[in-house]
Amino acid sequence: MAAQNNYRDDLINQSLPFFALNILYKKRKHPNNWLEYSYSDNDEKKEKSNDDWQYSEIKLRTIYFVFDNGSFVPNDELSTEQIDLIKKDGNTIHNGDLGETIFSKTLILSQPYELENVGKGPAINTRIGFNKSSVTKNERKYIKPENLKVGDFFYINIFIENITDSVFGEYVLEVNYSDIYGNNYSQEYKISVENKSDKSSSYILSTEFVSNQKSIKKD
Question: Relative to the CA of 89, which of 109, 125, 133, 212 has its CA 20 to 30 Å away?
């Protein structure tokens, strides 16, 4: 019996998935005349100036966790306006009612990650959620189940369009999945967003990249 159990454990270990979280560094380039953006009456100049902005990120499977009404909601894309905010790091320029040029800055959070299966086997029925740590397991929100081969990864972006006090707190990026034998596992990465000043004008985002794999017993 012991030999059979050891053989079964060896088979499981040879096909065990495991996820690693990597941060993606943002690359942003603006044109030299970026201050002229959007306050010329020349549509052609507007279009050219807008195209000069360059922002690139590597992605395969895309999940945007967007802060909405006190919690993060998973989406597979952002609006054009939200992408524009990321490109320009929250900076916008527009004409006022009297024809004056108005420069404004919105404090946004856009943190990209890459979550890769670096284990020895495929991850079956992978469900990913980003929720406040205080939210119970039954109330947490997840994406629909996906299957990932070894080397497959998710592109994940934590996005907040306008940072307010309600954003600050402790969060958990959770990954639940199974191996090919139906054994269930869970990994959690702790992420915190802290206020850096008294006026919510800046923030600190911290990520713990060490995650222990936990075996989940079937009911």
Answer: 133
Per-residue pLDDT at 51: 56
Torsion of CA 127, 131, 134, 137, to 10 degrees: -20
At 51, list the tokens: 């195209």
For the chain, the domains span 2-216
Q: Are 114 and 153 in contact (CB under 8 A)?
A: yes
φ and ψ at residue 109, rounded to 5 degrees: -125, 125
Q: How confident is the model at residue 164 (pLDDT cuts 50, 70, 90)?
A: confident
Strand, coil or helix: 165: helix
Whose CA is closest to 75, among 159, 177, 174? 159
Decide: 170 and 190 in contact? Cβ < 8 Å.
Answer: yes
Phi-psi category of residue 169: left, alpha or beta, with phi > 0 → left and psi -120 to 50 → alpha: left
pLDDT per residue as tens digits for the range 108-127: 999 999 999 999 999 999 99
Give the residue-averaged pLDDT of 61-67: 91
